[in-house]
Amino acid sequence: MELRQLQYFVTVAQHGSFTRAAQLLHLTQPGVSSQIRQLERELGHRLLDRSGRTVRLTPAGEAVLPHARAALASAAAARRTAREFDGLRRGHVRLGMVAGAAFTPPPELGTFPGLATTLAAFRQEHPGIDFSLTEDTTAGMLAALRDGRLDLAVIGLPTAASGREGDDGWTTLVGLGLHTVLEVPLVAACPTHHPLSTVPGDAVRDNALPVAALAGHALVSTPRGTGMRTALEHALAEAGASPAVGVEAAAPPQLADLAAHGLGVAVLPDPGAVPGLRVRPLADPVPLVRIALAWPGERPAEPPAAALLSHLRAAYPGPAAAPQPPAASDAAASAAAAATCAPSPMCSSAAAPSRTSRSSGK
Questions:
Q1: Are 40 and 46 in contact (CB under 8 A)?
Q2: Cα–Cα distance between 9 and 310 in angstroms, integer?
Q3: Main-chain dihedrals φ then ψ at residue 289, nearest 5 degrees
Q4: Does the CA dihedral 148-129-125-156 come out positive or negative?
């Protein structure tokens, strides 16, 4: 009995056709049929009923099929285990990130390594593993994760997004693993002489600016498909207003620079002190964006990607109560379970607004 015979048998049983199975296996139909007949002779029973237009399992075939699948799964697991010994010595990881994502919060939040520091530490532990970094929008990276063009991604999401039914954020997270790193409130960066830089009778609390006050003013924001833009649009919709984004840019430093030159009010994570800008917190509601790690949840991770994911999750533990999408498979869960989320002083809980971070929120 050979593994290839079991694979042929399982494929024919799954599709009910020798022709279709041969196409999927890139073999000739007579070759597939011949190998299955050899398997039947060795077992002493017919496994497939070929008398009808559709190939069906015989009672013996129905009994054998679970064992055949288990044997193939065990063989695949053995191959993966063997590859792990070699995979952590050399390999390549494709990491995507939103523009400007540095994972570097303000000093008051304590020690927190930047992304370059964390990747350098990983490279010291695994000198044979290379990685490539690409920048894209969150929507683009989610598609790349699903298509297999990325192994991991640093994405920005509206805080509500969880991938669960009824979620008022992005529902495209179903089937992906997700680990929250930061929760970031967005602020309004107004040009010094802009009407919203000082408003008579404005809310006293922290000189906050109601989100609804942004209506009718030109805004500077990231493009559609980014977490920051989605969080802004959700907050405006909740306040009964509509965005009027007149200028778009890829990263928070660009947004602040454009606003400082009078092109509109930038909505972004707190940029700090920028000449020509006055930063005002937003309220009613506070727009929140999440920085998170995402990875494919429906297929096992290759050892280099699983190792980097474990390293990043340990370096950025994130809020303890951050919502996680349900695991798509045991294999995917085991690949990502090397590190566990733990409470972190640099983040508040997922249920409450966090302090300001200067990380990107795309």
A1: yes
A2: 38
A3: -125, 145
A4: negative
72: tokens are: 């193939």
Show the low-confidence residues of the chain (pLDDT under 50): 106-110, 165, 168, 201-205, 320-361
The set of residues, in sequence order, having a beta carbon less than 8 Å from that of 143 and lying 6+ positions away, is none
Q: Is residue 236 within 8 Å of 158, Cβ to Cβ?
A: no
Distance set, CA 168 to CA 8, 143, 158, 160, 259 (Å): 45, 20, 9, 6, 29
pLDDT tens per residue across span 69-104: 999 999 888 887 776 665 567 788 999 988 656 555
Residue 98 to residue 294: CA distance in whole angstroms: 12
Q: Residues 22-39: pLDDT tens digits?
A: 998 888 999 999 999 999
What separation in angstroms does the CA of 287 have from each of 199, 268, 356? 20, 10, 12
Rounded to whole angstroms, what are the CA distances from 212 to 190, 246, 266, 308?
15, 17, 15, 42
Cα diameter, the chain: 91
Closest CA to 252 of 225, 218, 285, 227: 227
Q: Is the peptide bond before 105 cis (omega within 30 degrees of 0)?
A: no
Judge whether 185 and 354 are in contact, CB under 8 Å.
yes
